[in-house]
Amino acid sequence: MKDGLRFVDCDMHIMEPVDLFDRYLDARFKDRVNLQVGADGRPRRGTIVIDGLPTTQDAELQQYRKRNRPGTTHSTQPLSGSRLADTGRLDFAIDRKYNAEAQVMGMAMEGVDIAVLYPTTGLSLIARNNLDPQLSLALCRAYNNWIHEFCRYSPERLKFVAMLPVHDVHLASRELVRCVRELGAVGSFIRPNLVNGHYWHSNYWDPLLSLHEELDVTWGFHEGTGAWYSYFNELYGENRFYRHVASHWIEMQQALIAMIIGGVFEFHPKLRVGFLEAQNSWVPGLLSRIEWDYPQYRDSHAPYLSMTPREYFRRNCWAAVEGSEPEIEATAGLIGADRMCISTDYPHFDSNFPHVSTNLLKNVPREIAAQIFMGGAHLYAFGERHFREAAQAADRQLGGVAVGG
Asked: What is the CATH number of the domain that holds 341?
């Protein structure tokens, strides 16, 4: 808990081990995945090449080298503190090679009861058009099997969302069932970029959306930067600053527009969707823009809609914050704090870990913070049983190194 408040981290990240594919990828596909190696010939962190293409275009597009030695990390947000780079705040995790023990230690530092884990490298593994569906499936199964084992360190507190081979919706559906029924996944994640040109309101996705409802699990939109199928690579080229800002807001907006106007929430009323790691101050303005056009276009272009955009959002959607945004309280007043959740974004370079939860409590009244801390519980359907089991697991870990320095 954080200062007596229950806290679900709706979007905490892991760092995949460099030998994940050596250990978990189907042998039939290993020659199609190439990793950087060190002088000892063993895999090391770096660009992953799949079927001859790196998983993202960032390295291909980058014209100028990034700062590669320690220096001052700047932040203009008074509540954010400095970012993680060069602060030493992750030394405990680096020493433990980002293992599950470090994950639980990070949760203790932030006061997290339950964390839902998202990938790092895995955000880009299958982020391209026209990937061989069977290779897409093999990559997803390798990741899902690994993250399942990772979570077994503390299954009451560590939860995961499945990576799905969306290049074939039926393969994706079968993998979702496997991950939920056999591995305990609490949902799936996908980037908001279009896959093989399939719009988010396309009937193509109906089997997968229906399964999320039937299995009572969450669909999480989570963007990254540099995906091969992202339009922003063409629009902004090598400048990652441009692309990072645009992708994390505009791609999310396009997905929400499609889900509302295209009737996804009308035809899938029990679907729970999270819009993650994109802040959420864009949501009220976007809903107002849709509602402005509603009287002119609803009858002619979307006669199937039976609710207003805000009603769909409040029934089906949650959008995440990262604690220090100055507009959180104002946004909560417009969309409701109960439709918000919070991500520590541990251990990514632009996270405010381990001050995310403290920043939120400084930033908004306690009653609003309490609702946001609990937003992830509603998004992923965690109830009293889940918190009781998580508390018991935390108590068992109190005497061990998992919550130590």
From this structure: 3.20.20.140
